């Protein structure tokens, strides 16, 4: 078995924020990175925003205790702001640069009636198959 096949066997889909229409700011529950190795890649898939001047800002925050979350110390991990155009983006977090838990924080803005339908999921290699 090749190295690539061995690694693909360890690749895991991590459910972050399921596809849903959102009209207000929020965040997900913490995701425990302890069982992953190297980079964890987060993928944002968003439809175009609705309403007047809609904006969607999505960041990845970390925490040592799964309670108090803040920007990742090694540098902010954020997707490019989504507005009136659909967007698919990816950002990565090196597991060794983040504290044990991460969460997805999203901020929705606009003048009136703003709404976004989006999902954020991640892929990571498990340490132990």
Describe this structure in words.
With 129 residues, this protein is mostly beta strands. It has a single domain (3-126), classed as Sandwich (Jelly Rolls), CATH 2.60.120.1310. 6% of the residues lie in helices and 58% in strands. It contains one helix and eleven strands. Strands 2, 3, 6, 7, 8 and 10 form a six-stranded antiparallel beta sheet that branches. Strands 1, 4, 5, 9 and 11 form a five-stranded antiparallel beta sheet that branches. The mean pLDDT is 92.
In DSSP terms, counting alpha (H) and pi (I) runs of 4 or more, how many helices?
A: 1
Overall radius of gyration: 16 Å
> What order do the SSEs take from the amino end to the carboxyl end, as H and E?
HEEEEEEEEEEE
Shape: globular
CATH topology name, in short, is Jelly Rolls
Q: How would you briefly describe this protein structure?
A:
The protein is mostly beta strands and 129 residues long. Helices cover 6% and strands 58% of the residues. The strands form 2 sheets. Strands 2, 3, 6, 7, 8 and 10 form a 6-stranded antiparallel β-sheet that branches. Strands 1, 4, 5, 9 and 11 form a 5-stranded antiparallel β-sheet that branches.
Question: What are the salient characteristics of this protein?
Answer:
Jelly Rolls; 5-stranded antiparallel beta sheet; 11 strands; 129 residues
